[in-house]
Amino acid sequence: MQRQEQQQLQKQQxxxxxxxxxxxxxxxxxxxxxxxxxxxxxxxxxxxxxxxVEWVVDTASGFEDRLFEQIDEGSGNDSQRTLQKRLxxxxxxxxxxxxxxxxxxxxxxxxxADVEQARQSLLFLEPTGVGARHERDCQYRHAIExxxxxxxxxxxxxxxxLDDIARRLGISDAEYERVMRIVATLPKAPIxxxxxxxxxxxxxxxxxxxxxxxxxxxxxxxxxxxxxxREAKWWHETxxxxxxxxxxxxxxxxxxxxxxxxxxxxxxxxxxxxxxxRIGKHESTVGRAIQGKYVTTEGGMMAWRHFFVRxxxxxxxxxxxxxxxxxxxxxxxxxxDAALMRELGRLGYTVTRRTVANYREALGFGNSRExxxxxxKGGGD
Length: 381
Known about the structure:
The protein is an alpha+beta fold. 58% of the residues lie in helices and 7% in strands. It has 19 helices and six strands. A hairpin with a 2-residue loop joins β5 (294-297) and β6 (300-303).
């Protein structure tokens, strides 16, 4: 029986190690900088070498202290508070606690029930969602805290796979759609630092002296400080694996989308499956690698995901949105969605009127009547 428990623990530890590495591949420079900033407070061997974001390091330095203060002000005895603080130190770079209670209990030498209780206590701390098991759990916490009680009602109804939710809750379809939009945008992770609209690219590809020059900004640890520290070695290895995967993915993107990088508004067909086959990785790994990653090009800042275009359509949503935005900005008299659809067709983009409406709203433009009112107000100033 004891051998079976050891095998179960080893299997879970291996799985948990993989679980810990995957989000780091997904993470952008800001998120990784925040985590390294946290770790460097208690481990002098973990120091950002390059690719960090300075203001995020400063914010991260006081993150755990703020949580510890809340724990000290809460209820519970000394041993319970100590365990809660140990769980805070185990939070991943997003503020989630993905490891199982069984693994955490073994690590800290306590009962599983003690970990469960401590985890529940973390969920009452600020920022909302700290210590959640996964993204959906974090969204649930944000739904609980939302000012509109309907948000929680709809969230729980969706989780229960109920049908005809609007009728069950006694609200109109329009009201249901409004709440659904809120539910869809609930944060999937705690808001660990003040948001910023500025995007920090993973790399830059610009033309200098007639040649394309690539400069990478991927986060790295200061290798001279690592020594024999086990935790520092794990982070160094994980970041090196992340950065190597990103470089291999980008190499395929850069080869296929050379025209765009040369400054031409042309994107060629490319799929995640094709990239995965080229680099010898699973398609899901490619999807995680491009998540939240940006590059500075001759055409401006661009998300990696926008370089992927389906061969059957030979058009990318990014290119359609770009053309749509240009049409709206250049109009002297607001065009209806149907008229915009026809104009896009003349430019070689085949889309439906409904797609035009969805893209227009995503870009922040109102319908033709709303744009007409804005033009009228602007002309009257």
